[in-house]
Each structure stands twice: as structure tokens, then as C-alpha cells.
Amino acid sequence: MLYWKLTGIIATLVIILSIPLYLIKAKSIQSKGRGLQAAIRPTFVGSLKCRDCHKNEFDKWQGSHHDHAMHVADDLTVLGNFNNAVFENHGVRSRFYRKGGKFFVKTLGPEGRMGDFQITHTFGWYPLQQYLVPFPGGRLQCLPIAWDEREKKWYHLYPDMVNSKDWLYWTNAGQNWNGMCAECHSTNLKKNYDPETNTFATTWSDINVGCEACHGPGSKHVAWAETPEMGRPRVENFDLAVKTSGLDSRELVELCAPCHARRAALGDYTHSEPDLLDSLLPSSLNEGLYYPDGQILDEVYVYGSFTQSKMYHREVACSDCHDVHSLKLLKEGNDLCLQCHRKAEYDTKAHHFHKQTGETGDPILNADGTVAFKVGTGAECIQCHMPGRTYMGIDYRPDHSLRIPRPDLSGTIHTPNACTRCHFDKSVAWSDETVTKWYGPGRRPHYGTILSAGRKGSHQAEKALLKVAEDPLYPVIVRATALSLLTAYPGKGTQRTFELALMNEEALIRQAAVNGLTVADEKQLTRLLAPLLYDPVKAVRIEAARRLAGKPALHLKEEDRKVFNHALVEFEKAMAYAADFAYARFNLANLDMALDRPEAAIQNYEAAIAIDDLFYPAKVNLAMLLNGMGKKDQAEELLREVVSAHPQQYQAGYSLGLLLAEKKKYEESGHFLAAAAGGMPGHARVHFNLGVLLDYLGKDLEAEKALLRTLELEPANINFLTATAQYYMKRKQYEKAKILADRIATVKGKNR
Length: 752
Prior knowledge:
- By secondary structure, the protein is of the alpha+beta class.
- Helix content is 47%, strand content 10%.
- Among the domains are: 70-186, no CATH class; 270-309 and 327-403, no CATH class; 519-580.
- The longest helix has 38 residues, at 2-39.
């Protein structure tokens, strides 16, 4: 009996003692796990590794546009007809065929010569599929003839492009997969461009947009998940590199932005950047990309549009409309919008004034008699609030700025509107009158009118742009755009606004302010920008370093020099990463100039021109450099090329006019200076130089007019006042000269 009692006691003690022992052991495992996981840098494991645990999400993703973003070309992935199909464009017959189980096309290639090219990869899925062709130097080039999956036919993306020297010609840089497309169509993309050899060694972990494209490298998460539950270390976010749940609307939108924004990349995307602008610089509402009111013009990939919208500012995010794994809409038709908007108020004729689907009426017809818009189409929310544009020939993209139709703006700043997009047989005036009849005459002021005036360089736009730049009620991207336009209005009037913007909480505004700040005094510029060298966001601090490079950096305090040098290296690395683009070579050349490296600058300017012969800023700056080196004929040739190709680039025409004056070609110089003055009415210096030249040529009335315009723009400029007074003295108009002399004395008195 005693034996059994002792046995029971011993067993009980073992059980009791085993509990703390286990807890100690488990704690030890967790501790070791945390230490080990912290020491190990996460790596990419591939989407298939996610399937077993996340089957529902994986199944949704499979077959999505992300899944089909890119594939190796084979029988399962190629949609196009390669059965000796022939496609003809501008008299060129391209033939698609198979040989030895591989896919080929016979078409125009480099230098416009016919050749046979193997297709190794597919690109995209629906409504079109493109094809990639390998070229020397590790390049993959996008074939310009694409497959229309809807109509089951070949078509040309750029049917009128016949110049093989054009940047966008399919064998040139504008259609290079490595630099133009790859980072958003594959996972863990490393571009690996070598500027010295002009070659690529591009790699990826998943060929398509896989799980880790959004969630980041998954090795640590997998290791954590495969650890027995009782022994798993306590970690944040399940040890995933990127937080994708529990996000606010801004965080979620910025999670999608690296691929869904028109931007300049600052390096390979690593999923570890704390701020969006640590990895890229989103485009503002720049001319050529957007209409002045922010509607889409070029292909801008949603982010810049959506961040203008009321929806974004009411904390709506991508996932409120789209399933993040399948990318499909959560609901169809107006039901999607009615998740938030009251059906009884908004899905009614009292709101949209259009017939519902099923009602009788006449559809809107195309010129050939086919139906353009069915009856009921106008009652769809997206038709009025998300009118889109078609890119790549057949790919319709809705505008995600979700705006109210404004035909009144179409009449004043010539922007499109949803009304005449459908009712293309009607006038803008008809649309405006109809909207006024429905909703009344009141229209809120719109930043589009201000940005439009700013783009034109209107003198009256300055105050309005200042207000937009400073007003926190405007979207951030609009304020940044206003700052970029204010660079055309340098002086004390704008400096305060830029100084305030340097301290703004939004990185995009700070970057725009650093870029656009114009201060003549180098010490003052250094004082204002030195703090931005410490900015936590990469795009801001490297821009500050760029602006301070050269002479301004000489005024830096000793304690700031180290951080300046670090930021400048960051800038150079960012530009070297993008050195397959003309703009990056251009920026490197400008840096070379600031650092007094003229020969290196010439090389980089020439490299930019070699990449894109139509990239005129490189030609203008190279011309200025060559002119300063006494190579005036070469400079003149470059400037004439720019003015011929871009007659509305008045700054280039102005530079050409000054150069021709230096070469004593005065009459021709006057022609270009007059054109520049007409195209840049708010630039006082242009009018001044025109006035001086006209005075020299004896064209008195024209000279006086130009000089007086100069004083209208800058009434307190001593140099302009003095020159105009001398003009009157030469002509013995002493009363007018005396008035200006008195003004000079007053200005000097105020400046004491």
C-alpha cells in the first residue's frame, strides 16, 4: 500500500514539476526564436508556399491580372494566334509563327529592318496581351503588335510610329521591359542596370505579381507558421515583412501605390521603406500627364487621381471597392457605390436625370450607326463620376478622381467632361446649360482654373497659386503641383510660401518646396535647406543635397557636412539606378556641373540625348555648357534642334535668341526673343533683354513697350529702372527719365 502511495506522490510531483520546466523550455524556445528571427533577413519563398495555409486567398489570386502579369511563353500562357497569322500595318506584313515548339514573329526590328524574333515571355492577359523579345545586353523589349483577346485579333499599339529612332519605337528605351515595366509585373524585381556597360542583369523571385509583391518576403513568416504553436515566438504582424491588415485608408492606398502610381523610382523596391517617398517620387499633376483640373490625360495608374478625390479624404481605400486578392469589384454596377451612398437619394432620376436600364428610349449612336451608349447607361454612377480614357488601343481605364461633371470648365479651360463624352453630338454649351437647369447656376471655384493659368505663366495666377499651395483643404498632390508652378514666379512674393512648405508634414509638399525654392543668396539657401538634409524621407533629403551641391555646400556648418555627403551619395545612387532613363542622366549631368566636372557633364548630357533624342532639356543645358566653353556653333545647332522640334519651348527659344545676339545675328535674335516674350508673358528678364536688343536695333516704340512691360512685372528692380531711364535719356525724354530716377531713389531708400 505504501508503495502505491509513494508512487502516486512521485508521479504527482513529476507532473507538477514538469509544468514550470515546460514553461521555461517554451520561453527559451521563444527567446531563441526571437533572437534567431531578428538576425535573419527575410527572403522570398514564392507564392506556392502560401497555398496550403491561405487556400481561399490563393484561389482568388490564381487567374487574376496579378497572376497573369507575366509568364514564360508556352502553350498555356500564349493567347495570340501564332499559326502563321499575318498582320499588316503601313504596308509592313508581320507574320506570327511557331518553330520547334517556340514562338516567333517576323517584323520590323532595329533600324527599321525586317527580321525574325523569338518571343520568350507573355505580358498581361486581358483585354490585351503583349509579348517580350530578348535582345543583347540582357534586354527584353515589348513587341508593339499586341493580341486583342476580346476580338481575337492582332493590332498595333502605335500604328503611326514608323521612325525607328523614336524613343518609343519598340526596340528602343521607351519599350524596354527592364526599366519601363518589370518592377510592377514581377515580384522581388532587381533591375541590375549597369550604366558603364549599358546592360541589364534583371532578376525576380516570382515571374508574376505574387503574394510577396504586397506582403513582402515571407521566409520569417513561414518559419514562424511552421513552428509548433506552443513554441511560436511572440512576433508582430505574424512575422510578415509588410503589414497588410488593420491599416487605415492612407496606409492601404500607399501599399498599392508603388505600382499604381506614375512615379520615378529611387531604387529597387524592398518592402522595408517606412515612407512611400523613400522608394519613389510620385508625379504631380504635370502638364502632359493630367488635364489642368486633374483629370487623367496620359496613363497615370490611379494613385494621383484617387488622392485628389473626396472619397480618399473620407477615408475610402482600394479595398472598399476591390477584392485585394482577385482584384474583382466587390459588387456590380451601382450596387458598388450604394455600399455607402443612399439608394433612395442617389440611384434616382431626381439625382441623375437619366433613364434606367429597361426603360424605352433611343440609344446614342456612332457615326456608322452602331450603338455607342445603351439606354440606361447614363444612370450608372461611373459614367458621370468616373469617365475614363482608353490606353494601349483598347484598354479602358476609369478616372479614379471621382469628380462631379463640370462642363463649365470645358468652356473655360478646355477640359473634358462626362456629359459630352456620352453626348458627343452635343456642344459644351448645351451640356453646361443642361447641368445648370438641373442643379442650379452655382458652381464652386475649382483649382483647375488656377493650375491652367499657372501652366500658361499668367501673371494673375501667382496669388491664386500661393493660396492653393498654403491651403490645407486642397489635396496634397494639388498643393505640390501649385508649388511646382510657382517656380515660374521667383521673388519675395513666393519665398514665404516655399519656406512654410519646407516645414510641412507632407513629404510630397516638402520635396516640391525644396525643388522649387529660389533664393539668390547662397548663404540664405543653405540656411533654409540644411535642416532638410536630416529629413527622415529619402526623396526630400536627396533633393536638398542636390540643391546644395556645389557652391551652396561651402556654407554648410561642419556638423552638417557628413550628412550632406551621405545624402548626396544617396542622390547619385538613385540616379544611377534610373540611368537607363534620360532624366536621370540629365540630373547627373547637372550635378556634374554644380561640382565643376564639365567633361563628366558632357558625357551624361550626351548619354541622355542618346537615350531619347527628343529630351530637349539635355540639349538646352549641353548647349549652354558648350557655349560657355566657346563652342558656339555646336551650341547653336543643339538649340535650333530643340526649337524646331518643340516650338512652344520658349525658354529654349530665349536661350537661342541670346546666343544669336552674342554671335551678332541681331535680327534673327530679335525674332526668337520676341517669340519667347510672347510665350512667357510673366518673365521680366525676357522682356528686358528683348527691350535692350530692340533699343540697339533702333526700334524705339517696340523697345519702349518691352521695357515698360518689364517694369510692370518688377517695378522695384533697380537694373530695369536704370536701363529704362537711360533709354529715355538717349532720346532726350527727360521728364520720363526723371520720374524713373525718382523711383530709383525711393527704392534705394527703402532698401537701406
